[in-house]
Amino acid sequence: MDSLMLLFVETTRNSSACIFPVILKTITHFPEVKDGECVFPFHYKNGTYYDCIKSKARHKWCSLNKTYAGYWKFCSAEDFANCVFPFWYRRLIYWECTDDGEAFGKKWCSLTKNFNKDQIWKYCE
Known about the structure:
Elements: E1 2-13, E2 16-27, E3 42-44, E4 47-49, E5 61-63, E6 72-74, E7 87-89, E8 92-94, E9 108-110, H1 115-118, E10 121-123
Antiparallel strand pairs: 1-2, 3-4, 5-6, 7-8, 9-10
């Protein structure tokens, strides 16, 4: 749920003062919904998230709506995003986690079917 706040800003131009209305969008945050279900991907502020995030919180959390509307929950092990198989990376299709293209040899996977296009990934456990 979004709320709007109206402010007035005074500026000076050519020795005259003008007042302009400015509308700011604020986000309402409700208490955690413990039995809610994470929705991925979700939009929050200026980003799109495919997994739980740690934004202004001690623990990772997720939105319960496709576009964050104040409803959220802390993530448990089963809430984190799952790898998507098969996925396309470079010129190959992968059916399991891979270390291809990873400088330190750590296995990773795509969170969408087309890594080449979306570039969304996570390390495998």
